[in-house]
Amino acid sequence: MKGVVLAGGTGSRLRPITHTGPKQLVPIANKPVLEYAIDDLVEAGITEIGIVLGDKGREAIQEYFGDGSEFGVEITYIVQGEPLGLAHAVGCARDFVGDDSFVVYLGDDLMREGIADLVEDFDPAEFAAGIGLQEVQEPSRYGIVDVDENGDVVELVEKPDDPPNNLALIGVYVFTPAVFEQIEQLDKSWRGEYEITEAIQGLLDDDRRIQSHVVHGWWKDTGKPEDVLHANRLVLDDIETSIEGTVADQESIRGRVQIGEGSVIEAGAVVRGPVSLGENTTITSDAYLGPYTSIGDDCLVDDAHIESSVVIGQAEISADRKIVDSLIGREVTIVTNEQRKPEGDRFVIGESSSLEL
Ligand code: G1P
To answer: What is the dihedral of CA 240, 245, 249, 251, to 10 degrees?
Structure first.
């Protein structure tokens, strides 16, 4: 079985972070979201993987994953170009998948327990497709599915105003090639996209059976900044301590921490896990890192208090401030304004930034 990971889309809800890179490379505990999808496919025994790319940050994804060998997989890149919806993206993978069943995984989703059970359960002799489901709080934000007592899907509807229940499509699907004929017949939806949810409904309308699989363990779509922070908390909850860098004084650290190669925690700094630090990052003696914080590569954190936040990388934070619940992009500088006059905070902030003071 092959895997198809969808990594197109514009990432508009993650601006300004996505002005300079694709949302699928946003790190969660110092690992790009998309790499979690690749790992889940590998765990399910799938190593022939097609990544469907949009226009946004295409080169960055190709540069990070290369031919896949570093990740134990063989990657084929498929260019979707204009983002016309999930069904359009899946349709672009037709030649790549050929005549076999295949898994589709949304590249900005994270699943704690992976997809091995879902893939193993799928029976292509009985079903035209299999879908991963989970109960959600806000069903009108998702594709919602009605199932019968045997778990057979009865109806699907994309972002319903009046949801029949709260069982949502979580963005992992197993398809037989029958889905391609349905994709060809689709019209654009109210949001101007070709919806994979409607292609699956088309299979049902043709009297094909759709298998459902309720996925246990948390699941997170990382579309918005608060989702990235939440996903970061969920992943950090499961990390184990690993220290490849230097900790000047072990007393600095409490709880589980990951410290990458070349990173330094100076004596006097206080680090309260779970915390993940990338490579070549320095935490100086005056700094405090609180629980649920991830700091990327090549950062300097000096005299700042940071908790429950994600700092993507190459940032300098030297401010005697408390920074909480924040998503801080690459090459950001946050320093204390030493100049006495004029008094006040000074900013150089790009388009779509958001500040809460
Ligand atoms: C997409 C699907 C939707 C699914 C969701 C899961 O929504 O269309 O059915 O529930 O992913 O993340 P979108 O992220 O395009 O709004």
So the answer is: -10
For residue 99, give Cα distances in angstroms to 10, 102, 138, 179. Answer: 30, 9, 37, 11
**Ligand 1 atom 2 nearest Cα:** 143
Residue 236, both tokens:
């950090």
163: closest CA among 186, 135, 182, 190?
135
Ligand 1 pocket check: which of 23, 86, 173 to mutate, most ligand atoms within 8 Å of Cβ?
86
Over the stretch 263-275, which tens digit does the pLDDT of each residue have? 999 999 999 999 9
Strands (E), 159-315: 167-175, 210-214, 219-221, 242-243, 246-247, 253-254, 257-259, 264-265, 270-272, 275-277, 282-283, 288-289, 293-297, 300-301, 305-307, 310-313
How many CA atoms within 13 Å lie on the side-chain side of 251? 4
291-313 pLDDT, tens digit each = 999 999 999 999 899 999 999 99
Please give the average per-residue pLDDT across 143-156, as a whole number: 93
By most ligand atoms within 8 Å of CB, the mutation choice from 142, 165, 190 for ligand 1 is 142
In angstroms, what is the span from residue 84 Cα to ligand 1's centroid?
13
CB 134 within 8 A of CB 168: yes
pTM for this prediction: 0.94
Q: Strand pairing partners for 135?
A: 167
What is the number of other CB atoms lying within 10 angstroms of the CB of residue 121?
14
Closest CA to 36 of 79, 74, 7: 7
Token pair belonging to 180: 């391609």
Question: What tokens appear for 291 in the block?
Answer: 């629980």
CB 199 within 8 A of CB 129: no
